């Protein structure tokens, strides 16, 4: 991949009909990412599932429906944010991404982050969190904690798919979206000391990240 693309369109052209790993042979559609190119908030998921593979758009299945509800709870919608995944092609049977697939695909995600230049990256689930924060801490330990990856503020949260049949996780997701809403709210001049977010006793901050200079 050539570095320093000038636009997401140029990047998408570069990725083209990608055959850089074997997932091309089982995918229907490559899922590049969707949303506002100047988004303040960028969401990073794991990989396309069946519906995304068919439609070519991230989070359009049941997990996507929950993501839409969560966005609405923070007074956001898809036109305001950008959504991408660690892998751009569906692993067969929705198996976990393999390390060589992550290594091959994520230079494109890195370029998407650089071009969009969001203020906040929300990582959905273990794979996105471990990749963006370069941490081995599981999502259960870091979720809801505000982290830093280079110049980016990172909020790791549960993957919406994990909350579909688990109401406790669903409640936690809505709680973490309240934190997201606080994070992106304009800061009033005299509210600096009340805007501090506590870690809730979980791990914070993670050392060494993808975007560290
Ligand atoms: N799960 C993900 O991680 N990404 C999608 O796009 C859909 C489901």
TL;DR of this structure?
The chain is of the alpha/beta class and 213 residues long. Helices cover 35% and strands 12% of the residues.
What does this structure look like?
This protein has 213 residues and is of the alpha/beta class. It has a single domain (8-181), classed as Uracil-DNA glycosylase-like domain (Uracil-DNA Glycosylase, subunit E). Helices cover 35% and strands 12% of the residues. It contains seven helices and six strands, in the order H-E-E-H-H-E-H-E-H-H-E-E-H. The protein has helices at residues 8-15, 50-55, 62-73, 99-116, 125-133, 139-142, 167-184; strands at 34-35, 41-45, 82-85, 120-124, 147-149, 152-157. The chain has a six-stranded mixed beta sheet with strand order 1-3-2-4-6-5, with helices on both faces. Strand 5 and strand 6 form a beta hairpin. The longest helix is centred in the middle third of the chain and has 18 residues, at 99-116. The radius of gyration is 17 Å and the shape is globular. The two termini are 21 Å apart. The site of uracil has 11 residues, from loops.
What key phrases describe this protein's structure?
binds uracil, 6-stranded mixed β-sheet, 213 residues, 7 helices, 35% helix, 6 strands, Uracil-DNA Glycosylase, subunit E, alpha/beta, single chain
Bound molecules: uracil
Shape field: globular
- What is the CA-atom radius of gyration, in angstroms? 17 Å
Q: Quick one: how many beta strands?
A: 6
Order of helices and strands: HEEHHEHEHHEEH
Helix content: 25-40%
Give the DSSP E fraction (strand runs of 2 or more residues): 5-15%
List the domain count as a whole number: 1
The biggest sheet, with number of strands, parallel, antiparallel or mixed sense and barrel status, is: 6 strands, mixed
Taking pLDDT < 50 over at least 5 consecutive residues as the criterion, the unreliable ranges are 192-199
